[in-house]
Each structure stands twice: as C-alpha cells, then as structure tokens.
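Budget justification note: compute hours in this period were largely spent on complex prediction jobs such as the one shown. Inputs:
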Amino acid sequence: MTTSSSHDAILHTAVTLQDTPLLPAILAAPLLGAVVLGLLTLLNTRKTQGPSEQWVTIIACAGPVLATLLSGALFIQMLGQPDLVFHQTLFSWIKTSSFDLQLGLTLDRLSGLMVLMITFIGSLIHVFSSAYMHGDRGFSRYFTYLNLFLFAMLMLILSDNLVGLFMGWEGVGVCSFLLIGFWFNDPQKAAAGTKAFVVNRVGDFGFILGIFLLFQAVGAFDFIHIQEKIATISPLQLNLIALLLLIGALGKSAQIPLHVWLPDAMAGPTPVSALIHAATMVTAGVYLISRMHFLYDLTPVVGALIVTIGGLTALMAASIALVQDDIKKVLAYSTVSQLGYMFMGVGAGAYAAGIFHVFTHAFFKAALFLGAGAVIHALHHEQNLWKMGGLRPLLKVTAFAMGVSTLAIAGVPPFAGFFSKDEILWALWENHYYFFWGVGVLTAGLTAFYMFRLYILTFEGTRRSTVEVHAEPMAMKLPLILLGIGAISVGVLGLPGTLGLPNWISHWMEPVFGAHHAPDNAFLLSLGLMVVSLSAAGLGIVMAFSQFYKADVQPPADNFNPVTLVLKAKYGFDLAYSYGIVKPLMMAAQLHKEVIEPMLIDGAIVIGSKVYYVLSLIVRTLQFGNVRAYGYYMLIGMILLACFYFLLRQPGVTL
Amino acid sequence: MNSALFTFLPLGLVITWGILLLLLGAFLPNERRSLLTSIAALGAAVSGVATLFSYQQMLKAGGTLAPLGNFYVLDTFAVFFHLLTLFALLVTVLISSFYLERENLQRGEYFALLFFSLSGMMILASSKELMTLFVGLEIVSMSVYTLVGYQRTSLRSNEGAFKYFLLGSLASAILLYGIALMYGVTGTTQLAGLRDYFLSRAHTPLSGLAMILMLSGLGFKIAAVPFHTWTPDAYEGAPMPITGFMATAVKAGVFALLIRVLGEGLVDLRAYWVDLIAILAAVTMLVGNMMAFVQTSFKRMLAYSSIVHTGYLLVGVTALSNQSNNQAVSALLYYLLIYVLSSLGVFAALTLLSARREAHTKLSDYAGLASEYPFAAFALSLFMLSFIGVPPLGGFFAKYYLFATTLGAQQVLLTGFAILNSVLAIAYYLRVVTTLYMQPTGEHWAQQQARPVAITAVLAITALTVFWAGFGPFNLGVFPGINSLMNWLQTASLVG
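Corresponding output:
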C-alpha cells in the first residue's frame, strides 16, 4: 500500500488508488492459456494430428472468459465510485542509479471500459473461432496466438506507463503478423503479414522516439508523473512529442498515410479480422491519444492535424469501399473509414465521443466480420459478393446479426452506431470544424450506401452460386446473437446530451477526461444537424436499394470511367509506395548484393583471410619439432626482451 | 586445533593422500585398482572441505594466516587457487577413471603424481618467498613431466615428455638464475622484502637483468610465445585428462605465482616490466591464434588456444598496480575461473570421445557428432562460444572485466589488439561448432557407446556454470548472481 499513498500525494484530483491482485490475474489468464497451448502445439508439431480440438477449445476459451469475469467484477466495483482507480505495481524491471522502471497496471474508467469490451468480445470470438477453425491442422497454434494477442492487448490497455504500453503495442503487432500470415504456405498471405508488420514499424519508430523525447523532458514513463509535469515542457517539444506519438497511432490504427496494411491484413482467418483488425488492436491508436489526452489538450495544432487526417481517411476509405467486390475488403475499408471518424473525434478533443465510437464500433464491426466469416464458412471460402445473394433464409442468425449491424454502422437510430457517430459529428461542429463535419456527413452517406450494398448482395435477391450451404453451428450462432444484440443496444449508453438526454458514457469518463457540458441552447441546432446526417444516411440506403435490390442484379461491366479507376486503384497509395519506396530499396539492395557486397565487403574479407592463412602457414614452419631450435627460440626471445628493455625503456640507466 | 595448523591442513592432506595412494598402488592387487579412483576423488573432496575450514579460520584470524612468516601464508588469493586447483584435480580424477580403464593404464603412481603436483600448486599460490616458490614450481613440473610421459609405450607421449623435460630444465635454470641475481642485488628472497628494497632504492641494470631472466623462466611455464614451443608437443603427447590438467590447474598455479611476483614483489617496478609483459602478451595472442588457425588436430588446436588465453591473461597482468582499489587481481581470477571451467569441460568431453589409444584427436573425426552425442556436442559448442566470448556466457564477462580493467590502466592499444585477437580466434572456435553440427556424421560414432556418468556429470556441471556465470551481473533476484563471487574476489587483492 506504499505505492498508493505516494501516488496520492502527487495527484491533483482526489483519486482513491486501490491495490488489487486481480489486475495481474486478468493478464495472467490469457498468458497462461497461450503458454499451455504453445507447449501443446510444440509437442505435437511432428505428428500428423494436432492436439484434441475439444481440449484446445476449453483451454483457449477459459483464459478470456476468466479475464472477462475478473474485469467485470472490478468494473462493477467502480460503478458507484467515480474516484476509484485500481492499481498494482508488478516489479521493478530496470533499475539503475539514475532511474527505476517499475512496471505496473492500472484500471481507471477509461481502461476499465476498454478491458471489459476487449475481454467480452475476445471471448465471443474465441468461441466463434472454435467452429470456424474446425479441422484446420493449425488449430492449437491459432489459439496460442489468439490468447497471446489477448494478453498483449490487455497489457497495452492496463499498463500504467508508456513502456509497458509499448510492449503490449509491439506484442499485438507480433500477434497480428503471426495471425495475418497464419496460412503461411500461401506466399501472398505471408507477404500480407510482412506488409502489416513493416508498415507498423514505421509508426512504432515514431512512437518510440516520442517516448524517448517525453522521457527526456519529464524523466518519467508513468502517466501520473507525465501528467504532473506536462506543463513544464516547452511548446515546441510538446508539439514534437505529440506528433511522434501520433505517428505511432497512425500506424496501428491504419490512418493515412499508413493505412495500406489493413486491407491486406484480411488474408488472416476471418475471426482474426474481427478481433484484431476491427474491434481491438486497430483502436489502440485512438486509445493512445485518449490516454495522452492531457498532452493533446495542449497541442491544438496537432489536434487539427488529427482531425484532418481522420477526415481524409474516413472519406477516402469509404469511397474505396464503394467498388470493392470482396466481402472482407469492403469491411476492411469500412473499418479504416470508421477509425477515421474516431480520430476526428479525439482530434477535436471529444475523447469520450471517440472512445464511445470505439466501443460501439467494436460490437457492430465484430458482428459484421463474424457474420462475413459465417457466410464465407457457409459458402466454402467464397468471398466475392457477386457469387452470394439470397442467403437470408439459409443463414437466419447471420442475416439478423449483419442486418442490425449494417443499420448500426449506417447510423440509423436507435441502433448503436447512430449515437456514437452523432456525438463525433456534434463535437466537430461544436469545435468549429464545419468542413470536417461535412466530410463526416458525406462519409455517413457513403457508408450507408456501401454497407447496404454489401448486405443486399449477400443476403437478398436470388442465389448466384450453386454450392451447398453449411448452416452455422451453435458456436457461431451464440456470438453472433450476442454481438447483434450489442449492436442494437449499446447506443443507449451515450444518448445525446444536447437533446437533454442522459449521456452515461460521457459522465462515466468525466474523472479521466474532465467534465464537459453541452451548451444550453444547442437543442435545435443539434437536432437540425442530426436530421442532416440522417438524411444523408437515408439517401445512401435508398440508393443502395434502388440499385441492388432486384432479382437479376449483375456485376457492373468493366468501365473506364476515371473515378472508378481511381477508386479501384485505391488512390494509388500502394502504387506510390511500390515505386517510391519498395522498388528503389529493392534496387539498392540488389546493387549491394551484386556489386558492393561481393566486391568490397566479401572481397576484402576473403583477401584478408587468405593473407592471414598464408602468414599462419609461414609461422607454422617455425614449429618443426627440433628441441635444439626450440631452446634457441627461448634464448633469442630472452635476448630480444633484454635488448628492448635496455635500449628503449630504461630511463636514466645505461650499462 | 590450533588455528595456525589450519594453514597447513589442506596442503598436508594433499601430500598425505598422495603418499597413501602411492602405497596403495604398490600393495593393492591388480583387480582392485579401480578402488584408487574413489580414494583419489575422496581425497580431492576432503581437501576441498578442509580448505573451506581453513578459510573460516583465516577469516576469524582477520584475513590472513601466516604462522611461518611469508614462507607459507593463507589469504583469500591462496584460498581461491586452492579451491580452483582442487576442483580441477577432482574433475581430472573423475575423467581419468574412465580413461585409465579404457587405455588399461591403472597404476597407483598416476593419482599419487597428480596429488604431489597439486601440493606444488598450493605452495605456488601460498608462498611469498622466491625459493619456496621455486621448489613448489619444481614439484609441479617434475610430477607433470612424468604424467605427460605416462603412456610409456606411446612414442608421442615419450616425445612430448622428453621435450617438455629438456626445455623445462632450461627454463628452470633461467628462472633460478634470475632469482639468484635478484638476491644478489637486494639481499632478500622475500617478496615483501623486494618491495621494500625497491621502494627506497633505484632499479639497477643488474636487477633489470634479474627481472628479465625471471620473466623468461615464468614465461616458459605459462607458455608465452616465444617460450611456448613445448606446449603443442607436450599437450598432444600427454594422456587426455593430463592435457586437461595441464591446461587448467597447472596453468592456474603458475599464474598464481606470476601474479604474486609481479603484483606484490615487483609491483613498484611496474613501469619497467609493463611493456615487456605487453609485448609478450601481444606476440602470444597473435602467434597462438595463427597457429591454432592452421591445426588439423583438435588437441593441438586446444594447446594453441590455451596459449592464446595465456596472452589474454598477460594483457590483464599489465593492469596490476600498487593502487589499493586495483581491480586487476579480481578480473584475472574471474577470467581464470571461467577459463578453467570451460577447459575442464572440453577435455572431459574429449576424454570421452577420443576412443581407445586416442584414435580420434583430429577435428575431422568429430564431424556430425551432434547426431550421436547431442549433449556432448552441445556442451562442447557452449564452451567454444564461451572461449570466443559470446554473451551471455561466462567467457564474455570474463573478457569484459579483464579488458575493462586494462582499459582503466591506460593500456588502450594493447586492449584493442586483444579484442582484435578475440575476433581472429572466432575462426577456429566456430569451425569446431560447424564441424560438430553441420557435417555428415562419421561412421565410427556408431560403434562407440560408452557414456560414463562421471563425465556426463562433469560436462553438465561445467556447462551449467559457464552458462550461469553469464547471468551473474544482472541482478534478477532469482539467481544468486556472480556479483557476490566478484565481491569475494575483490577481497583477494594483493596490496592493500
């Protein structure tokens, strides 16, 4: 309890820190699962059959479920007490005379909400995966990674300092790499994993530089101390730190210009896309910015930059999604676009709104991805929208979950997405980002259009494929139903305060982000703005129905209309990176391989070693086995020593 | 018991045990000869325990026990070498039991000679008087000459022993002449007396000559180039466990003597001998590396490798000084410890693998060993990597401490050269690892099936220690850490 008292002293607000061993237990549960499953996997590598799927499923799901229960228990304790923050110091990791790096965990209202969401959705996706991955030879390896991912993600969220957060950040990156390239026998999938990893490195580079700079400025890694000393940093340095941390966030959350990895990441198994590339890991950037809100509050210029990047990303990704034919690609771009929304929110200073959108998005996007997984599973790994259609009677639960989620993401009240999206749009307007409010509304329209296109092409109309459809097993139905219910209902947590309704989530976050009261005369204005965004969504839905809701819908003929071309080329980011970075690097590497390495480096070494070898052979001839010669060597050596000694190193003495 | 008697307890035990073994060897019937091994191992262990007892008495007496004045003292420095050489003796006895049985060489004088040689080493580590030290050195040398030529029917063994004996006599003569000259100049053979003399009086050409003669004689015993020429032949001719004994215990004992003489008796003449030692070190490292590089025989390569390590240790010797906070002694002791442990492991493995009549001593004989003897191959590779100085193995920190100390002593050029030489050494050490793992397995491994427990245990213990020693500097809480050992070694400083 010594820690809590020392922390108490330095906190400005009255926060009750309470030590609890449950916090490390939340981390330990999935880690233990990962270790056990990893050992099981290793022991069975050489056998044709992996370990029993039943046992693997039980072990794999135990960790996440336990973590959910534990975090739920802690969360309930926090409900009535706004000042309560759980904390546990783990151990002193690096200790030198100049600093002592203590790893610790903390559960405040922000991390509490995130952890509850992550463990809950993570558990559902574990259950779903047990059906989706059935029969795969890598079954136990898959769950090892998945458990390990959950551990790293929880570490990221729960850490009370930037170093622990960074370790979790890297840990989720590694697991993401492993899971995208899960079917590594396919070179394309392996390459997608590598691409994700490499692009993330760019972001991580910025992130770690930011951490170093911050440490240089304040001499601490933990958030409490950083927050305490943040005002002492010079504005220039502050902006630089904010920018560098932002680069990290851009990489992890797939924002322009580091968004290119996320669509490729769909190479992984679909539940992975649901968990990592939709609900949890990709929102880490938003979490980071919210966690460092006291830094971004002081750097409005960087905030404006975040809004700009988020807005552009949202619009760009939504427009690319219009022309995608792969069900997972549409969802991937939609994720990028929604992440753009969240960035706009936190950039405008509405951290609670951003986190709220993270929360609702996690439910409906996880439902959409799992639904897509169920469809892909049912159609024997068919992902092309134009080969689906008419699936609603066959996959009723999936159609329900995806249907309500589509309504939610399109922003139709009272489904979850409407409220969180509207919070962000309101925050933009309130903070005078009128242009980006417009961008948000336009994006909302586009989102409604392409999501209904996806839904209609998948479930409505006539069947365009002849394959026999697998019904969803129970292990798929249950997560879909729960997530579907979430997509319908979690919006009530954040009813618009401007309309005089209780906004629970904003109130919940007050101890972290500070109180924010809606202006009193905003009722009409916010209602008006809502109507505008709703009509944009409605327009999108209507257009989607008019275009695709017919029996004989056909894929559009190849057209060379420039807009379509640009969209199909994804605005040329991949091409630009390929020609601007990858190819020149490859050429430089080739140059090294063909010319510099063999001639300069290898050549020099080979010549050097040859010379050394020949010299060694010469030296060896001195050792020819004659004892008398050996005796002479000794005498000569002695005389040489004496000569050296008397001639060169004998100050003031002569013979 | 009188605490003064504790001073002589380990030495007395070792000598008594040697005589006991000699007598038993003469009177035991042939078929009970294997009993000798157990008695010898017991002797080494008992002497080790006795050393610890004496150490406790020494601590009670305030850090040193010197009932005979400077002729035989017990201090931390001496205790370290007693324990180290006794451990080497124990390992040698254990691996010899297998070896002697295989080669059909079980005779009593083998173990007796080992114990006598060890008594000489204890004198080397404990005495502060030149004549006593010389006698100790001769006791060691005489026993080892005989042990090298122990395989009387083998030409190689005889050749090695004879060369060693002839050249060794020459070196002893040179050393003795140096001691005599030194006595002529200073009128004393006590190290403390020498130090007192040079504190007040100038260094003369005659005392310089005496110093050079002594250095040359000692240079022979530690196998520094150009006094090393006996090493490859003697190492190759000696029975494998004896080679190991020479590379570890004998080398450690002679270094104890060298460190005593230079670090205590002649420490105030540092300015005069430091360049000579530096030259010897540089030449020793370079020539040793070059010769090791072109060997085809594993055993000969190890002989040259031991020469190279002599070179590194000499680099460390240049850092000895009369400053009270001098780290050189502890760095040298730590290096010797790691070197001795790794070498013991290597020679244990080679004893096991070399086959009858030592048929397999060429490196190429060990191709693909890993598939037949995975543990021995792994341990051998670990030792090679430790010799190279790959972190986190013990060899890395041994080198690190040693070179950090010499850098602190302003020996920048020499330290740089030593680091360069550690790079050159990678060539032949890594060749061993690649041979063990990356070449097709030789057919002769299929027939060899002996896997004696004693050798496996020695391998496991040495490998584990070399591995664990690397984690020492990190205070991980779980590991007791080498830190406490290093702190203990610090107390072995010679001048306070």
